[in-house]
Design brief:
- By secondary structure, the protein is an all-alpha fold.
- Helix content is 86%, strand content 0%.
- The protein has helices at 2-9, 23-106.
- It is rod-shaped, with a radius of gyration of 41 Å.
């Protein structure tokens, strides 16, 4: 099968011994083969780098989501603390007002 293809496209002296030297065809074939090899290596390298970058971005996004969740939990706890503090402050003000009223009545 392979020799048949070489016969159709012209022979390559590097691969077959019984052919007339066709250096232009040979260089074209070798150039195409080397182009495929180099292109494949470069494509794999780019794919691999993009995959690593994507995985790293996914990890970073996961950490950001965890930080946002912790941040929202802290904000909720602060809001609850503020509500308790506000009710305590209102109760203290009410007691202060009652004490002032009692002191005014005694005078």
């Amino acid at each position: 099968m392979l020799p048949f293809l070489f016969d159709i496209w012209g022979c390559i002296p590097e691969l077959s011994k019984n052919c007339i030297d066709m250096t232009n065809a040979s260089s074209t074939y070798l150039g195409v083969i080397m182009g495929v090899i180099v292109g494949s290596v470069v494509s794999w390298w780019i794919y691999n780098r993009q995959k690593q970058t994507s995985e790293q971005q996914d990890k970073i996004l996961g950490r950001i989501e965890d930080l946002e969740k912790n941040h929202s939990d802290i904000l909720k706890k602060l809001a609850d603390f503020d509500d308790k503090h506000e009710s305590s402050f209102d109760a203290i003000q009410e007691l202060d007002r009652k004490i002032d009223e009692l002191l005014k009545k005694d005078k």
